[in-house]
Amino acid sequence: MNATNSYMKTIALLSLLAFSMGTTSAQSIEQTLTKMGITLFTPAKPMANYVKAVRTGNLLFLAGHVCTRADGSGITGKLGQDLTIEQGYEAARVATISLLSTLKAELGNLDRVKRIVKVTGFVNSTPDFGDQPKVVNGCSDLLVATFGERGKHARSAVGMGALPSNYAVEIELVVEVD
Q1: Nearest 5°: CA angle at 79, between 73 and 80?
Q2: CA 132, CA 122: separation in Å to the nearest integer?
Q3: Which domain holds residue 112?
Q4: Checking DSSP bridges between strand 113-124 and strand 154-160, what pairing results, if any?
Q5: Alpha helices in the chain, H assignment, sequence order
Q6: Over the stretch 58-116, which tens digit does the pLDDT of each residue have?
Q7: Where are the beta strands (DSSP E) in 112-166?
Q8: What does the DSSP 8-state code read for residue 42?
Q9: Count of domains in the chain?
Q10: What is the pTM of this model?
């Protein structure tokens, strides 16, 4: 078994463990995140003329979030050239933590999420790189581990020739809320 398959199997097992921890009705979503070692942060203000989230009816559309951490550091580079699938997976996970931070800021409580409806993942990659779905699994696995059945979603994972500031991944969400 090669290192990539071993890594992916380890991530899948961790996701299943986190999923099983997060499905009890007495446990809040934030408690689930804490048990997974994830800390949400106050999102930075948009740097251009847009907002990070727009609600219409019971749907919340989250703008694309790149893979930046609470301290402002980010994961940059191109998949298939500078970064491995595992590093891309982590970049998608980091972008998802940023999205969850914005979601909490918008809703006040992540338990108000009824369902993750759609994930769109953009992967900064070379023309011959074809594993965008494996990279965006970093987002999908975290959402299912966090929200259980409510985290299962429709998804697109597409390759891009470039992303802003050479970030490795950008992800958008559509979320159904109460």
Answers
A1: 150
A2: 8
A3: 3-177
A4: parallel
A5: 3-21, 29-35, 85-107, 132-147
A6: 999 999 999 999 999 999 999 999 999 999 999 999 999 999 999 999 999 999 999 99
A7: 113-124, 154-160
A8: P
A9: 1
A10: 0.87
